[in-house]
Design goal:
Order of helices and strands: HHHHH
Number of strands: 0
Radius of gyration: 28 Å
Distance between the termini: 54 Å
Low-confidence stretches: none
Shape: rod-shaped
Structural class: mainly alpha
Mean pLDDT: 91
């Protein structure tokens, strides 16, 4: 009987080591999944901000400087969460917003029916057209970063 107890004592230390290793591995996996979830949530916030600013610009056919700056601030961390194509895309949306704002300012200053007024209206319409096409394209651009099917 004492031989069995001695064998069990000898096996207890490796068994404890195996259990401790398994627990450490599970904690590592849990932390890895938590990091992945946090990154997903931060990416989703940027995506939602893009949808918000596009909706705002199209619904009003204009945008305030305050809203453009809010968009810039809300999407600032995109440089660290995505590949270069998303920050470049956000810069493009911002630029179209600035141009939309400029054309609306020009329209307000020009005499209706004049060449300058018509050019400003055409410029505004071009930017609004580009912005309205972005709803579908935005989903495609963000899909590889937000797809959880794999």
């Amino acid at each position: 009987m004492s031989e069995v107890v001695e064998i069990l004592k000898a096996l207890l230390t490796p068994l404890i080591a195996i259990i401790a290793t398994y627990i450490a591995w599970q904690q590592w996996n849990t932390n890895k999944l938590k990091l992945k979830l946090e990154r997903y949530e931060r990416r989703l916030r940027v995506y939602e901000e893009v949808k918000r600013i596009l909706s705002l610009m199209i619904s009003k056919a204009d945008i305030s400087l305050a809203e453009l700056l809010k968009f810039r601030a809300a999407s600032a961390e995109a440089d660290f969460l995505f590949g270069s194509e998303i920050p470049n895309y956000l810069d493009e949306i911002y630029s179209h917003g600035v141009e939309l704002r400029r054309y609306n300012s020009d329209i307000a200053k020009k005499t209706p029916g004049g060449n300058d007024h018509n050019a400003a209206v055409q410029g505004r319409d071009n930017h609004l057209n580009w912005l309205s096409k972005q709803f579908g394209l935005t989903k495609d651009k963000f899909k590889k970063y937000l797809d959880i099917s794999n």
